[in-house]
Amino acid sequence: MRKLVGVVCLGSAVLLSACGDKAGDADVERAFDTVNVIDESNLNDIMLTVADPNEAVNYFRRSLAEHPDRIDLLRGHALSLVRAKRNTEGAVAWKAVVEHAEVTNADRVEYADALIRTSEWDTAEAELDKIPPTYETFKRYKLEAMIADSNQQWQDADAFYEIAVGLTTKPGSVLNNWGYSKLSRGEYSEAERLFGEAITYDDSLFTAKNNLALARGAQRDYELPVVPMSQIERAQLLHTLALSAIKQGDIEIGKGLLREAIDTHPQHFEAAVRSLRALEANVTN
Predict the structure, then answer these.
(1) What is the DSSP secondary-structure string of 141-207?
(2) What homologous superfamily does CATH list for 43-133?
(3) Is the pTM for the entire model greater than 0.85?
């Protein structure tokens, strides 16, 4: 019986600190602190992925009120603001992160991203310049390419886009950006190729499909691109081609494409109807 009592007491010392052992008390507290840190880390991750972005902002703000110097909380707060599309606040929050003693290169990339979202291109470029060239990630080079584009440094932009594409298995969005860069330079054939490639990686990218229609229209090719599309997307792309035709003076082709877009759309296509009415009224006048 004494042995059983001893076992119970020993178990209580480990789990409940019941046997009066001060060292045991400290060990138990440390053990529970470790569990709490793990649980909190998991909660932080959840707030950054599945939680509503604005709820996540409030969560991290409450946490920062208790632990204002923790970089993981500062980082979570900044990420949540950007996810919530509160970009100005997000840039300010990321500035607090990069001023922290434990700042990383990844943090500087995220700060540059937030700055670009608020059109602070020069500051974003300066921030990326602080990162050593040995730090090579998809996002870093995607941002470098975008900044080179904004400076019309086309050779650098192409080089950065090419590196970025090679650093990800999902290059659809960056190929679309690269294609738009080519489109803005008037390199329509190359832009068309890049938009088509973007769609092969992600056929849900309607922006790339619309840009592809713009690139074809700029070459006076008014045939719909052969890409996966819904009926609504088909109508929208016909509308884009129509506007391209009208812009280049191919009025009758544009009118025909507008009519086809209206007939194709499963609902009332107000934008196409308005464009056709305006065009017919202008021609009549």
Answers:
(1) HHHHHHHHHHTT-HHHHHHHHHHHHHT-S--HHHHHHHHHHHHHTT-HHHHHHHHHHHHHH-TT-HH
(2) Tetratricopeptide repeat domain (1.25.40.10)
(3) no
